[in-house]
Amino acid sequence: MRTPDSTTAAAILPLVGGPANVLTVAHCMTRLRLGLRDRSLVDEEGLRALPAVLGLVKDDNTCQIVLGPGTVARVTPEFEALLTTTADRLAPHDAETTTADLLALRGAELKAARTRRNTTPLKLLLRRIADIFVPLIPGLIGCGVIAGLNGLLVNLGVLPGLTPALTAIAAGFMALIAVFVGYNTAKEFGGTPILGGAVASVVVYAGVAKVTVLGVTLAPGQGGVLGALAAAVLGTYVEKWCRRWVPPTLDVLVTPTLTVLLTGLATLYALMYAAGALSSAIGTAAAWLLSTTGAFAGLVLGALFLPLVMLGLHQALIPIHTTLIEQQGYTVLLPVLAMAGAGQVGAALAVYVRLRHDTSLRTTIRSALPAGLLGVGEPLIYGVSLPLGRPFVTACAGGAAGGAFIGFFSMLGDRVGSTAIGPSGLALFPLLSGNRGLALTAAIYAGGLLAGYAVGFAATYFFGLGNVTPARPAEQAAEQAAV
């Protein structure tokens, strides 16, 4: 029996060029990410017309289809199953067909390789960082919510027999997150994942407290996820070097041993020390930025985050957030960046009010607004503000206002942080933490949201729509996008 998710997967497949055009399938919190042989075969208009599709993101030969949280996690396995079934059904039945298919496949691979060579190193690096850390987000969210609940119970003095257990549950993942980072890093860089996890585990092993480097005794966890990331990358290169020179008969014994030994020594005597210094610098810089230039820093960060989301580059900030959570127990950057979503919501509401006769656009806003309030901005970005043009800019103004509001209080010494990453908007309230108590922290964050909503709405209502008339939506979008 076909479900709505399998129906969506079946509708998407032919619109991305069919099974022969799909190289890889993955997903993040909101997007189905398809690696394609030929991006030109994608029917963008057809995809946008599907009820479940909230937007598209162009990125070389990758098609990123915004489906929203929850939906994307259900549609992806259906899409993968459909790919397998279709490939089996369409398997070639004679040598001539097989040869033709192989030649076509080789040509497509050569074209894809040429496209990859034209990809800038920075874009490739940011994409790899995202692929390493995005799979960790569910664990960060789950443990962050439990940590917040546990903190509330401790402050209220309720269930004292349960809180130690909740502490262990919430802290266990963060204590070993370096191992998961190492595993994913090796997998992403073409090494053996378990070896990546093995060398990264050195960072969190309690026995490193007996190791002294430059007269300083190492501490378990020193360098955190950055040290684990560096160790796993180095381990991958050591492993590849070993496989080139070690005889095949000795490979199974020598390669893993040399990989773990050489990389482990480098991690202990160089990487942990260097990564620890870098991690400390990140924490110090973030604290200084918001305590010294808080309002201005919040304004800039809040204004620029929507463009980062639009380009898919916001995932590159995950290592910084994770480092701050490891050091301070929360990241002070995420609540500021979350204000961009508030500006987006305010802008969408203004469009809804101004264009009251545009039934189609108002329907899109009604369906995307709940996700926007919970911090998932892609549906409103790709379905409303970006196609109209200027509302995207005024939404950034709302984000700037909210960021400046929170930054101002940071200058006064009232820090607002999040114990995990992933959610934002209203969904961030259970994860809030700070240095002045939960009530004040929540009040400041709520004030930032209201500022973002208000400025995003006002800026869009008065300046974001210009002379738009509801009777000609296609011309409106083209005109506004050109402004």
Rg over C-alpha atoms, rounded to the nearest angstrom: 25 Å
Structural class determined from secondary elements:
alpha+beta
The helix-strand sequence is HEEHEEHHHHHHHEEHHHHHHHHEEHH
In terms of DSSP E residues, the strand content is 5-15%
Helix content: 55-70%
Count of separate DSSP helical elements: 19
Major sheet: arrangement of strands: 1-2-4-3
- Overall mean pLDDT stands at 83
Q: State the distance separating the first and last CA atoms.
A: 48 Å
Can you lay out the helices and strands and say which pair or pack?
Elements: H1 4-15, E1 22-27, E2 31-36, H2 44-49, E3 55-59, E4 62-66, H3 71-89, H4 95-118, H5 121-133, H6 137-156, H7 163-175, H8 177-188, H9 193-204, E5 212-213, E6 216-217, H10 224-245, H11 248-311, H12 318-328, H13 333-337, H14 339-354, H15 359-373, H16 378-388, H17 390-411, E7 416-418, E8 432-434, H18 438-464, H19 473-481
Antiparallel strand pairs: 1-2, 2-4, 3-4, 5-6, 7-8
Helix pairs in contact: 1-3, 5-8, 6-7, 8-9, 8-10, 9-10, 9-11, 10-11, 11-12, 11-14, 11-17, 14-15, 14-16, 14-17, 14-18, 15-16, 16-17, 17-18
Q: Summarize this, please?
A:
The chain is built from 19 helices and 8 strands.
Features:
19 helices, 483 residues, single chain, disordered C terminus, alpha+beta
Describe what you observe in this structure.
The chain is α+β, with helices and mostly antiparallel strands and 483 residues long. The protein is 69% helix and 7% strand. The chain contains 19 helices and 8 strands. It has helices at residues 4-15, 44-49, 71-89, 95-118, 121-133, 137-156, 163-175, 177-188, 193-204, 224-245, 248-311, 318-328, 333-337, 339-354, 359-373, 378-388, 390-411, 438-464, 473-481, and strands at 22-27, 31-36, 55-59, 62-66, 212-213, 216-217, 416-418, 432-434. The strands form 3 sheets. Strands 1-2-4-3 form a 4-stranded antiparallel sheet. It has a two-stranded antiparallel sheet with strand order 5-6. The protein has a two-stranded antiparallel ribbon with strand order 7-8. A hairpin with a 2-residue loop joins strand 3 (55-59) and strand 4. Helix 11 (248-311) packs across helix 12. The longest helix is centred in the middle third of the chain and has 64 residues, at 248-311. The protein starts with a helix and ends with a helix.
